[in-house]
Amino acid sequence: MLRLTDTRTRQQEEIRPEKGHRLRVYACGPTVYRFQHVGNLRTFLLGDLIVRVGETLHSWQVQLVQNITDVGHLADDTGIELSGEDKMLLAAREENKDPFEIARFYEAQFLEDCAALNIKPADVYPRASECIDLMLALIQTLLDKGHAYVGTDGSVYFDARSFPSYGAISGNRLEDLRPGHRQAAEELADGKRFHADWALWKYAGAQRQMVWDTPWGKGFPGWHIECSAMSLHHLGETFDVHTGGIDLRFPHHEDERAQSNSAVGHEVVRHWVHGEHLLAEGRKMAKSTGNVVLVRDVVDRGYDPLALRLFFLTGRYRQQMNLTWDALAGADRRLRRWRSKVAEWAESPSTAMCADYVQRLRDAFDDDLDTPTVLVTLSELEKDGDIPAGSKFETFAWIDRVLGLDLVRDVGRPHDVAADLPAGAAELLQRRAASRSAKDWAAADALREQLAGLGVTVNDGPDGQTWTLG
Ligand SMILES: [Zn+2]
After folding, report:
1. What is the DSSP letter of 31?
2. Which is the most buried residue in 246, 269, 430, 463, by most CB within 10 A?
3. Do residues 220 and 89 share a domain?
4. Are residues 92 and 236 in the same domain?
């Protein structure tokens, strides 16, 4: 039985799909006015793990919906709403392009990055700009049911006080949410009745691009209504799991829950599951901090992008992780070693998987996606002298359907030994051979040390230097 930590109930819950073998999952998707950094990708990996565990270990048929926010998102990296300009439009102006051109470009990049990390595609990627009718219909329902009102400026607001359980996900109670003075004065001036109310639909000034006509005037959607409209439309009035980054608990998911539940009159999302932050060199990854890492930075340094995926799996999704280049180098070495071992084991006759290891791997995944334990168990299996090579091969190949590390990539290929070397090691080996020819022993020793740091052990023999991976 799969158990996940449910943010709303604040405990682990058993995941039992409401519809038998069909698990329905909604994953909050990217805002496509910039590249997704690897911290965002870690969050998307959470959804992918749930999908893969469901399909491979529980034989569920998983339906995954992930939205593409290509309009109307006025929030910064921390999910706090900005009173300033829409970032999509800002990016369009900076890059001197049409906002939709920007959105499609970064959407394609997002899909490419997901593919590089073996994150399985969602069944559907609804775009906010193409779901305006769904949002308008939902806003009308909320107006009809008395949960929303039209402000004096043509914006439509959700009446937070009409939803008594507001705050259940984040623990932020309405009475505790006190606005800053400036914000209060600005926002309440537009006909907003209460500081915690939020815009479902925003009135647009004359200069703005990306606007739509509505009964209330020209405008554009708020961000939160997008996820309510899309999830209700694609997954129905209740669905099993909703994922997202921890930042999204408040206000995004709190507001989404209030909208969806108010529209249908009951709890829509059965389980809310949130992924923790990825830090880079000890600090939260953000453009303003200057420590943003992209998938292409990882590739430019010579690492396999799946080394990043393996690095993420060394932590549990609900724990903060700190990305360092050293840690990534370690993951890259382990990935290459495992691929090479799996190819080697594949040469032996196939033998049934070892039931004990299989059970331990299943249990670890089911225990709130305890991927660190999965990896420790695999390292143990790798070294276990009592298990036949053919059985190790079958077990690694099977569990890789969940891990998604392409561990069988080198099976059956003529073995290219140099491909096992970690990034930069081939060059160091060449320089060391040259130092030895020149009898520069000090340089050769220094290079040996450097190589040892990369996990490459160098031995000198009569035919020159040889190496092994530690
Ligand atoms: Zn969302």
Report:
1. B
2. 269
3. yes
4. yes
